[in-house]
Design a protein that fits this description.
192 residues, alpha+beta, elongated
Amino acid sequence: MGMHVGYKRSVAKSNAQFSVTTLSMRGNARLIRLPVATFTTSMQSNTPSNQHVGLARRLAAISYDALLLFAVLFVATLPLLRFTGGEAIPPGSAFYAAYLLLISFLYYGWHWTRDGQTLGMRTWRIRIKQEDGRRVSWRRAALRFLCAILSCLILGLGFLWSLWDRDKLAWHDRLSRTVLVSAHPSKTNAQE
């Protein structure tokens, strides 16, 4: 008994179908066509682009982003020096700390909501998305950002949690209902 599995996609996305051809011992062929939606949930966890990312790749991407973010914060500080006459900003300035936090959120939030990847995540082939597979909203990005700070402040336990979590999710992933998955280098948002 043989089986051939094929995929057919017509112009309209709703007409995408999988076709399964079975061949019996008598030589009778039978073609079965099923809509793609039938296979989506059962195949979703097996595709490489939906494998959850472990702690090592997550930390590598964070390291890359930390270097880039440092440069962004440096440039973002330059306009403030006009108000201090070119002098250093006093340590412990609540305004300055809030300003840097806002710039940091805008860096991450813009990347997460735009294409699901910061530059560090792109290098390590990581993509962020909501649990349901949709692009991350600004609201979810804000929640994830604040929860990631909490995960880091508690001795990094929120990140270390991903070592024991069955889905490799950190606290901020769970709380914001987002996931980090492996991203195929040639995929675009339209294909995901």
